[in-house]
Amino acid sequence: xxxxxxxxxxxxxxxxxxxxxxxxxxxxxxxxxxxxxxxxxxxxxxxxxxxxxxxxxxxxxxxxxxxxxxxxxxxxxxxxxxxxxxxxxxxxxxxxxxxxxxxxxxxxxxxxxxxxxxxxxxxxxxxxxxxxxxxxxxxxxxxxxxxxxxxxxxxxxxxxxxxxxxxxxxxxxxxxxxxxxxxxxxxxxxxxxxxxxxxxxxxxxxxxxxxxxxxxxxxxxxxxxxxxxxxxxxxxxxxxx
Amino acid sequence: xxxxxxxxxxxxxxxxxxxxxxxxxxxxxxxxxxxxxxxxxxxxxxxxxxxxxxxxxxxxxxxxxxxxx
Lengths: 241, 69
Known about the structure:
B: mainly alpha
């Protein structure tokens, strides 16, 4: 059984990765086009995400735990590997830099009264597009760990904390090392995805749940090795034989 | 494309991006690895090691392919 802390930490970090982009978009739109329409758009986006989480969560709760772990494990593993790979490439290329650069959402200032539908749509789209992957991770991870409430608390907690930082400090959220967070979450999702997919096939792990830290160590060592190789390759160096 | 069809296409595109992403060979290798693990298990051969090995090997191959030459 996966512990509450593992569920909270994994869903919190996964949600934080996407929340950085989400908050950057919402704060950027709000600062330039006004807050009222932007916040209504963001709230509408969160409403859509809440419906996705509830509907998907209810559907998954009806599946028996064996097949559920195979499906959830395989999904988390294939998705986790994408972040694992992107995280290695980005950390190797940029180290611990944040997303930085020019704010992609900068638009003309809105001075009219009434609803600004451009701001509403930009905030809504930013929340839904960035949040949909997190909604899937929260639901599937919660289902696999048999701790749906813990997964939702972790996911929502990250959005509230990153959102609070974004609203209070505006540009500071762009300096959070998103690439490193993405790599950590990729490693965690790949670890639990591997464990649950194999368990879902009815295969016993040597040592039972103690195999999880073993997998984590293997994947962390893999990440460190590939980051070193990528950096050497970028510098035109050959790894020592 | 009218709305119901465009929504279906958008959902299908999201699911493909979520599950497969930009390197389909990794997802294919995981799917084949899970099938092989099930076959080994049915024949009472230890299979827990296969997916971790595929993960490590396929990550290396995928990174090498994605790196600028």
